[in-house]
Here is the input.
Amino acid sequence: MTSIGEQLSRDDLLAVVFESVREIMPTVEPARLRPELHLRDLGADSVDRVEIIVTVLDWLGLAEPLASFTDLSDIDAMVDLLYRRTRS
Here is the structure.
């Protein structure tokens, strides 16, 4: 069985993350969404960050421990992790 993520490019995965941010934090201006920022830079508290990650994982059909996302430096690093996980 394959996950939906296997069919997505890295850019598609970035779009999924950004869409999840907009869903969980609707007051964030789309122009502020940049891969080099951390979710904290966008005003996401710990609950927001967990909700964003869970939303992305659910959408992609991935089962990844939340701890995998703890030390990521920015959204770009999150997308890299998601891309690797969808290919393994």
Notes: Residues 4-87 form a domain with the Non-ribosomal Peptide Synthetase Peptidyl Carrier Protein; Chain A fold (CATH 1.10.1200.10). The chain has one domain: 4-87. The CA atoms of residues 5 and 37 lie 22 Å apart. The longest helix spans residues 10-24.
